[in-house]
Design goal:
With about 425 residues, the chain is mostly helical. The termini are far apart. The chain has a 4-stranded mixed sheet, sandwiched between helices. The protein has 22 helices and 4 strands.
């Protein structure tokens, strides 16, 4: 149902980039033609043998809810629903990659028992939203290429993490369309996050919203929790509130046709900007500035920045920013890179003097990443080491030698 229009623009952009980077078209064909089952059939076999398959003849009540959500979202592809015996309040969707295979949605029994019908509609709509948006396919592709998550390059880790959070916010929009009742959407969040029965404790909807606003304000200042796979509930709730009051959602109700909504996009961009914070530490901000400026200055001493140097700088920056290429470009466009480098070194040494050795090692690595070591580069290393980092020439020589012995790979071809 209106997948492209309902999706959060940045989520769609990142999803498309990840799909392209991971060669989604080619690998999708290989997986299908090679009959690489990956997890589709595995999940189906396990769930059929150990879970309850919800069907109209066996469970007309719960299956009726599932069917209502499917019809509301106007989804035409087959889905099999399973209920797993687990007290954990969780659900997941597995997208089919073959035409003759159904999508799978699994809900734990604890979720079914805890949520009322309205709350359950939101959860089911959310999971179907992952399938409609094709984000479930991208998740599967990521798992296929990186069965061991520890193997994901740092350059991709933070981008995948941000995309996963935005994908949850997109899926929440489908959940709200399936259950356009804000109170029950929020009470569902409360139950899932706390494991408590709202009626049992006398849950106060308005007080919960007020507390969420306070939590959201604190989160904006710190970005704490950004390494989790899901955005924190206050962000999810606020994003749903924005969507519920938007021209986009109301256009679906009035005309069954979405309209562009720049106000919604801006509100969500402001809200999700906190999800892009890897660290709010001033020291890390200066480290990020140092890496970018040192990379630009060092790589341009002998020739222009080459691909190896560029990749090293981006990989180093990716520990501090989700969009390293854009950040590097902004530093370059700001101009006066040499002064920015000096400022970053000064600030880092004021906060953490021990960083001088890490900074110098970075400079040496950039110098020989192009598989060459030139006299102008060595002269620059001695100059910055003595004048800014407070090192003796002998100490500098020892540090250069140690770095070269550990990681220098000389150019083997192309020399005259």
């Amino acid at each position: 149902m209106f997948s492209s229009e309902i999706r959060i623009p940045l989520e769609k952009k990142l999803g498309d980039e990840l799909y392209k980077t991971l060669e989604g078209d080619i690998l999708g064909e290989i997986m299908a033609e090679g009959k690489i089952e990956f997890r589709d059939n595995d999940y189906q076999f396990v769930l059929q043998g150990h879970s309850f398959k919800a069907m109209p003849n066996l469970s007309p009540g719960i299956s009726g809810i599932f069917q209502e959500v499917i019809e509301t979202l106007e989804f035409k592809e087959p889905i099999e629903f399973y209920i797993n015996n687990s007290p954990e309040l969780n659900a997941f969707a597995v997208a089919s990659t073959e035409a003759d295979q159904p999508h799978i949605i699994n809900l734990n029994s604890g979720l079914i028992q805890m949520l009322n019908d309205r709350e359950l509609r939101f959860v089911v709509g959310h999971e179907i939203g992952h399938i409609i948006s094709r984000n479930a396919n991208i998740s599967k592709l990521i798992q296929f290429v990186f069965p061991n998550p520890a193997r994901i390059p740092v350059l991709l880790q933070h981008k995948i993490n941000l995309w996963q959070k935005l994908a949850e916010l997109t899926a929440d929009r489908y959940g709200f369309i399936a259950n356009p009742d804000m109170a029950s959407c929020i009470s569902g969040f409360f139950k899932i996050s706390s494991g408590l029965n709202a009626e049992r404790i006398g849950f106060d909807y308005n007080a919960y919203l007020e507390e969420n606003e306070l939590i959201l304000a604190r989160f904006k200042d710190s970005g704490a929790g950004n390494y989790m796979s899901h955005p924190i509930n206050p962000i999810r709730i606020k994003a749903i509130q924005y969507f519920a009051a938007s021209k986009l959602y109301n256009s679906l109700l009035e005309h069954d046709k979405p309209v562009a909504d720049p106000e919604l996009e801006k509100a969500v961009d402001d809200l999700t900007s906190t999800l892009m914070i890897i660290s709010s530490s001033p020291l890390d901000q200066y480290r990020r500035q140092f890496i970018a400026t040192a990379g630009i200055v060092m790589s341009n001493i002998d020739t222009e920045m080459n691909e190896d140097e560029y990749n090293l700088i981006l990989n180093s920056l990716s520990s501090f920013t989700i969009f390293p290429a854009e950040y590097l470009d902004s530093i370059f466009k700001a101009g006066n890179v040499g002064q920015q480098l000096t400022d970053s070194i000064t600030k880092i040494l004021e906060i953490n003097p021990a960083d001088r050795y890490v900074m110098f090692d970075m400079l040496v690595s950039i110098a020989h990443t192009d598989h060459r070591i030139t006299r102008p580069e060595i002269a620059f290393l001695f100059e910055i080491g003595t004048k800014m980092l407070g090192m003796s020439r002998k100490e500098i020589a020892q540090l250069i030698a140690g770095n070269v012995q550990q990681s220098f790979k000389p150019e083997l071809y192309g020399q005259n």
